[in-house]
Write a structure and sequence with these properties.
There is one protein chain. The chain is an alpha+beta fold and 349 residues long. It folds into two domains: 2-75, no CATH class; 80-348, no CATH class. The protein is 26% helix and 27% strand. The chain has eight helices and 19 strands. The chain has helices spanning 2-36, 41-51, 58-61, 66-75, 104-110, 156-162, 225-230, 293-302; strands spanning 78-79, 118-124, 129-135, 141-145, 165-170, 188-192, 195-200, 208-213, 218-221, 234-240, 243-246, 249-250, 252-253, 264-270, 275-280, 305-310, 319-321, 324-325, 343-348. The chain has a seven-stranded antiparallel beta sheet, with helices on one face. The chain has a five-stranded antiparallel beta sheet with strand order 4-19-5-17-18, with helices on one face.
Amino acid sequence: MAKKTKQKTNKNVKRAFVLLFSIFIIGLSSGMFILYGPYSWVRDRLITTAMTTMTHQYLATWFFNDETIAEVLANNKVVEPDEDTNPNEINIGGDTSSTKYASKYEKDILEHDKDATYKIINVSGLKYKGYLIAIYDPSKVKIATAKKLGVSGQYLTTLAKENNAVVAMNAGGFYDPTWTSNGSTPHGTVIKDSKIIWDYEDARVGGGFVGFTEDDVLVLGRMSASQALNKYKMRDAIEFGPFLVVNGKASFVGGDGGWGIAPRTAIGQRKDGIVLFLVIDGRQPGYSIGADMNDLSDVMVKYGAYNAANMDGGSSSALVVKNKIYNKPCCAKGQDGLRGIPTAWIVEE
């Protein structure tokens, strides 16, 4: 009897082993088909998303060679309009009191308390959730910088508090060749109060200058720091990108734009002068996976942005309202999920 029981147990073990092995083979085959089969969507999203992260590029380099990665990145890119912003197209202070709206998006922006400085609007898509902030007085939008640029960045909450900001959002990126930076060194040039306070040519990336003129117009353009100051009279600006919309023309986005799906930040301005901050959460399954450049451009266009640009994303994406973190930052190991950053867009009281 004991012998029969033992034989039966051995058969059950063998069956379980065969079942587990079969599941493993099926899973492996499915994974190989997804990664290397004729349908490239998953492969492309994996590569573009992994290659724009700080610490997870191995998710792409483990499975694909350098040639494949380069090919995917070349096919997933943003082609920006070949022109700079025309400031004369922006009519700040125009009448926005109409009660007849062309769309729900116009209603979301224009329907607000008379004395409101800003309005927060929930935005969402199939894979993301986030916030759009309409700022009704563009003269209140400024750039804030970490106290020790080149040495250490600061948390967005700290930047907001030190600058008496009612709203704050991360701005440009920073030099991070080893993916271990403390957010101290801004990409390119930083202009604050009409003066160049940082200029690091070796770290330039993205579309170009993104900043506000002395007339409170958001200008996007590829130019020198001298042109930004003398031709456009920029008072607050950073260098980053890519540009999403220029003079009402949306950039062409191939694939996901080459930036993958991740937390995102963007800034824009409508023709009526209203400034748009956009922060989208990501890398949080069950809540928000994130957005690609198509998603950013789509949101900005729907809400009437005439000029708009991508800002730093990933673990840098954060929104602070009245000194409290409003979104759900991800991945960073700092206080409340924030990481040190060199620059932020703020809205003064």
